[in-house]
Automatic annotation (TrEMBL), chain A:
Name this protein carries in UniProt: Sorting nexin-2
Its job: Involved in several stages of intracellular trafficking. Interacts with membranes containing phosphatidylinositol 3-phosphate (PtdIns(3P)) or phosphatidylinositol 3,5-bisphosphate (PtdIns(3,5)P2). Acts in part as component of the retromer membrane-deforming SNX-BAR subcomplex. The SNX-BAR retromer mediates retrograde transport of cargo proteins from endosomes to the trans-Golgi network (TGN) and is involved in endosome-to-plasma membrane transport for cargo protein recycling.
Keywords for this protein: Acetylation, Cell projection, Coiled coil, Endosome, Lipid-binding, Membrane, Phosphoprotein, Protein transport, Transport
Coiled coil location: 440-474
Annotated GO biological process: early endosome to Golgi transport; intracellular protein transport
Membrane topology designation: Peripheral membrane protein
Stretches with biased composition (Low complexity): 30-48
Biased composition, class Acidic residues, residue ranges: 65-82
Organism expressing this protein natively: Paramormyrops kingsleyae
Principal cellular location given in the protein's record: other
Subcellular location: Cell projection, Lamellipodium; Early endosome membrane
Protein family (similarity comment): Belongs to the sorting nexin family.
Amino acid sequence: MAAERDPPPAGSVGHADLREVEDGEDLFVSTASTLESSPSSPEPASLPVEDVGPSSNGPKPAEILLDDDQEDLFAEATEEVSLDSPEREPILSDGPSPAITPVTPTALIAPRAEPNVIMVSGMFEQSLDELEEEAAGDSFDIQISVSDPEKVGDGMNAYMAYKVTTKTSLTVFSRNDFSVKRRFSDFLGLHSKLASKYMHIGYIVPPAPEKSIVGMTKVKVGKEDLSSTEFVEKRRSALERYLMRTVKHPVLLQDPDVLQFLESSELPRAVSTQALSGAGILRMVNRAADAVNRMTIKMNEADVWFEEKQQQFENLDQQLRKLHGSVEALVCHRKELSVNTASFARSAAMLGNSEDHTALSRALSQLAEVEEKIDQLHQEQAYADFYLFSELLGDYVRLITAVKAVFENRMKTWSKWQDAQLMLQKKREAESKLQFTNKPDKLQQAKDEIKEEIEEWEAKVQQGERDFEQISKTIRKEVGRFEKQRVNDFKVAIIKYLESLVQTQQQVWRESDWAAL
Amino acid sequence: MVVSVSEMMDDAPEVSVSGFNLSVSSIKVTEAIKKENSLVFVVGAQEFPSKKQHFVDRKFEDFEWLQQCLLMPDGIPGLQGIIFPPLPAKPCAFQSNTQEKMIKQLGLLGLDDDWKTYCMALEMYLQLVVSHTTLGKNQVLRSFFTQTQGPGGQAGRKGILNRLSQALEEIKKENHQDVDEFFRNERASNSSLVRLTKATTERLIAVVRTQQNIALACGHFSTTLHLGVGPDEDPAAKTFSKLSLKLSEIIIIVKKNFECVAENNLNILGLGLDLVSRYEESEKEMLFRRTCKLVELEQNSKNLEKAKPAKKANMEEIKKASEKEFRHISDIARLEIQKLHRVRVEVFQQCLTSWCEKQLHAARETSSILSQHLRAFKQLDSTE
């Protein structure tokens, strides 16, 4: 069973032949080749800020390759799919989006599902076939960028439309290069669809950026000041990261909703994501119900691994929150510093201007002012960089919330399993009761019925549990790897930034030194 | 010290005070020791040519006394035309020492917790006094530098009285029209300069404080990173821990860089600005004294015209005396002002040059350390 087999530490397998670096750029070659199969983020290239360091890339980063891992995951998936497909509930979201909550308890305990074409599993098989056909030829190559935020409309009905551009060579898309216009609620709609489909079977669906009423109102009202442009910028980059994370997940990438989102020019308006709608209230109610559940369900944790993992995640969550706080403080100070440096520069300039006694003196003062200005520019750069750090940490904090939700779902599944077992027992008792009543004609029929039901229940739930566990295991590893890669890339980025910052500073000083002599 | 006073002054580096010669460059205020609620400064000087060293403990009151004594002697014509080297403000009492208060009291000099900057300012003051052609000849200097017992205290009260009356008169006389164009211009430019330099100094204070804050925040950040590191068996978590540690090292480097930059800002640029600013205030005071003299002169002239013939001779003498004084003051003032301009330029030049050098040096160092880390990091990455 796939569960027993660990996905091979991806670094080992056939890495050498996966190199496909377009730009031969040193920095990215090394990072690309040292990547484990999970894709590293092409984030550095899609950062809005000016490019990293003197050896900066062009807009296209090196291609990132994911062959092995995809195959591994899908190999596992095949086995699960073949076992489950008749029983798997049709948790589709074609047509109008269903209720938003990740789990609607009733749906899970639906009776035997129709053997409809389950698009999900169907997709698995189909894409797996595709993959197998193209073997090592197809690389995980997709780059999504979110750009050009535009204000559409006026007054309180205005919204920002973002252009989503996809560049890819994956065969699952019809074209290689396309873009569509989307608004924020579209993103939320996508997330809710994905969540309803995948969360309760154990996939960690990346959380969408948060709604911000204050921020949006400012934008709507048309205030063109620093904070609203900042807000739009933050949102834009958050959306970009969200999409990239979503498509990096091999299962989510194949989802028709995702494809539709990226490709089709018109998307049905996701009304149910509005804060004050009926669906919103339903969500709140469900969240409350979840909270109660959390307190009442006591699970006998059979698997030590899960217990550890949960603990780890708790710790990680706390840690990340603290870090996030620290980085935010740092960002704050940086902002302050840039403001202060600017005003110092102004003062120095004024001083220089009033000093017309000696031309030399004035020149010196002006020099001081110029230097301060450049210094301030640097501060802004460094601040932007740190702010990215804090955004990343924030993202991860939210991702962990999603992970926790997944764990909770597991608990729910377990409790359902227990319930099912109870039912099973009851049925068995009923069966044995029947045996003692002397109605032989009905007996056999009843017996058979019950037996069937019993078996079916047991099997179903057991399997749900198992495959769930397995999936979350895989995903957990994924998450760990992602983390590592991200922090990795970030460090490199931050270092390069600092380096370039310092180097440019050097040049400035050198010039000023020379001038002062 | 960064700003070298002896290079700035035209005067000979060694000044003779009737047999008591001091080598200006040897004057040092080395440390500030906290003794029972007040600061004691260790003042050192070396005699020329005997090379005899003197080390004395001085409190701030002693410095104030010195300043008063320099102002007092009447024998020297036009003493009031001298722009006195400025003394830093008095350090406040210790119990309620928050940074806010210190900055309010001492301006830029309050930013340094170690009092290092303050000592440097005192040092400069002494050097400036000793190297001044006229002031350097004052006898009190000898006792200041050699006597073990601090002179302190007596002149304090006088100082306060002086200040009070001065404040009242200032309001009346400040805008008095000047007879001489040179001085008129000078007064105008001086007042604006005082304002601007003060503003610039304040902004610099803000910058340095923020830089200090950033350094602190970096420290917090790196500590938090450390907290998350624990024994991990999971390889992913292990790597994450390693990364955290590395990142924390880097942040510490950033922190050190900031501290260094802030220090440079403070000790070099800040000191220079502070000195210039206080000098300008001193100039303002001198100009004010001169204006007072002018008012007095005009008053005397008026009196002379109004005077009855009996008193006329007397009045005439008084008028002549004040006229002579006024002329003396103006002459000396002119010289001093020109010297001040030059000094200003030189101070700025030196400041900026050495500031550039230091910042450049710091930047280079940080850059090389960071590149090292970057390389090591890339290697680490490739081995995994």
